[in-house]
Specification:
Blueprint (H helix, E strand, L loop, with lengths): L1 H24 L4 H12 L1 H6 L10 H35 L3 H11 L5 H13 L2 H8 L3 H6 L6
Length: about 150
C-alpha cells in the first residue's frame, strides 16, 4: 500500500513537470504567429514591393495561414498541458480514475517525456490495489454526503 501511495505521489509530481514542459514547447509556434500577423498587417507594403510583371502573391491568405495553424497548435498544446496538470492533481487526491487513464493515454503521444510518463502511469493505474485507492471515499466525500457519519 505504501508503495502505491509513493508511486502515485511521484506520478503526480511528474505530471506537473511534464505539463510545464508541454506548455513551454507549445509556445514555440508563437514565432510563426507573429510572422503571420506581420504579413497581414503589412500586406499593402509587401504587395507594392512586388515587381510589375510577377504574378500577384496572396499575402493575406499566406499571413492568415501563419496565424491560424500556429494558433491551433498553441491552443492544443496549452490545453494538453492544463489537462496534464489537472491529472497530476487528481492523482495526488486519488480521484477521477478514468480521467487519469485517458490523460495517460494522451500523454503517450508527446515523445519522449509524455510517452514515458504515460506508460508508467498506465502501469501503476492498472494495479488492483491502486484501483481500490481510487474507489475508497476520502474525507471530502464523507463531509459532503447526505448520509454523513456524524
Amino acid at each position: 500500500m505504501n508503495k502505491d501511495l509513493e508511486h502515485l505521489r511521484l506520478l503526480s509530481i511528474f505530471h506537473y513537470v511534464v505539463g510545464g514542459i508541454i506548455a513551454l514547447f507549445a509556445c514555440f509556434p508563437i514565432i510563426h504567429l507573429l510572422m503571420g500577423i506581420f504579413f497581414v498587417a503589412n500586406a499593402p507594403a509587401i504587395r507594392d514591393a512586388q515587381k510589375p510583371g510577377d504574378p500577384e502573391f496572396p499575402v493575406e491568405i499566406f499571413g492568415a495561414m501563419f496565424i491560424i495553424i500556429p494558433a491551433i497548435i498553441i491552443l492544443m498544446g496549452w490545453t494538453l498541458a492544463v489537462l496534464t496538470i489537472i491529472a497530476g492533481r487528481k492523482l495526488s487526491k486519488h480521484q477521477s480514475y478514468i480521467y487519469c487513464l485517458v490523460i495517460a493515454g494522451l500523454l503517450c503521444m508527446f515523445m519522449p517525456f509524455g510517452t514515458v510518463l504515460g506508460v508508467f502511469t498506465l502501469l501503476v493505474l492498472t494495479r488492483g490495489s491502486v484501483k481500490e485507492l481510487f474507489n475508497r471515499p476520502g474525507p471530502q466525500q464523507f463531509e459532503n454526503s447526505p448520509h454523513s457519519w456524524q
